[in-house]
Amino acid sequence: MSGWSYFLSAMTLALVRLSGVVVFAPFFASTALPARMKAVFAGALAILLAPLVAALPNARAGISFASLLGELAVGMVYGLSLTLLTEMLLFAGQIAGLQLSFSLVNLLDPSSSIQTPLLGDLFELLGTLVVLAAGLDRVLIASVARSFRVVPLGGFALTQLTALALLRAAAGIFLAALELAAPILAATLLVEIAIALVGKLSPQLPVMSISVPLKTVTGFAILLGSLALWPRFIEARFSGLLDMAERLIAGHAAGGALPGYGG
Predicted confidence band at 263 (pLDDT cuts at 50, 70, 90)? Predict the structure, then answer.
């Protein structure tokens, strides 16, 4: 294969791998970003990486259906793994919204074009802000670039073990969402207990009319107070999911067992 043909083949395979990340990973997958901008971004990265990844040992830059599918699978492993962070934030927002009496308030989520709870959108936007402020988007791109050394071009195939590991990891979003919403859950539960006790002591007190606003005010106060812990929490979950994606790919390359992620 001539030099230009080999370079174009390597660039095409690298573009397919990066496209899987851009389509599925948080922030990059947002429909708020123009499709042309995402295409230009992925294409520019592919052009920059092509000479490097084509020269790596065991790189097979030949274009075939199997190689294209394998490169797309690598991008999907990264993207689907990190999408669990967004789903965790949405679920935590739904739990908090239920406790703050906002369960019927829905908005159109610009990233998924579906109706989502009000606090779910708020939690997702705060999570995106943390990802950008902490530079985690650049950490993801660096990890994808390193993946070309672990899994050379044309050297990955999606297996049943990989899919099962992602499925097990999806179960962890429920626990993580409960951990994130736990301060609001605890505070509103204490408010409900206190109002119930007051209602027993004073039956003529309009308990129902003061329960909802008191829970809402208390929940928002606890939410504002817990925002200082969000960057560390989200960074830890992002790093854990990114490590899981790297282990899935590296485990396949080494022929070993593929670990899951339950946190």
Answer: very low
